[in-house]
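Supplementary Text 2. Reproducibility record for the structural model of the 253-residue chain.

All settings were left at their defaults, and a single model was retained for analysis rather than an ensemble. We include the record here because the model underlies the residue-level annotations in Supplementary Table 4.
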Amino acid sequence: MIGIIGGTGISSILNKGEERIIDTKYGKSKVLIDKESDVVLLFRHGAEHNTPPHKINYRANICALKMLGVERILALSSVGSLREDVVPGDFLIPNDFLEFTKARKSTFYDGEDGKVVHVDVTEPYCPELKEVAKKILKKRDYKFNEGVYVCTEGPRFETKTEIQIYKNWGHVVGMTAYPEVVLAREMEMCYTSICNVSNYAAGISKNVLTVDEVLETLKEMEEKILNVVDDFINYEFKERTCFCKSALENAVM
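Retained model, structure tokens:
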């Protein structure tokens, strides 16, 4: 089964399936299950976009997908560009991340059950799924880059000084990639992300960033995003051979 995780505005173009509330040991998670396509849709911020990034129950969401039998996750995110050559309206596939979050539950192994587990994230994004994402974007002739995703706490946007620092290390900045990607690895699920670049970050753009700017770019990218999701859902996946499915076997405990 495939899991699609959506962010800002994505619910308006992927809103289909049977709604279910999944009870997990970490809390409840609301999903849409499209049995016909064997797909689970999950909206991080809620269908009404009323949960800020630092309040999302990432553990409940990833656990719910695992409980439903999801093996592969495509995460969609809106991000700001840290580089002038990463242009709003294009896509970016993360190949690594840096995180500057502060108060998020970021592991399933927090010592409560007496276990200490160190999972390898040398390659945090599944290499097999990453290649699928690249193949889909190339086939569609959609412009994209690869690079490092810098994850901040939110919900505020970053200052110009912060962006000046981040741009030396990363390519885009967002608020939701972490801890999703790590939690998926801990659950031995394959996880990749396709980011839609909605704006230049503070100080990169000459103008003050507005919500209207972000939503306008996202609106322009809606059809492309939907095409990418359809291609991913209908992709003929073979048996998983990546290290994601055996992450705990190779973890340090």
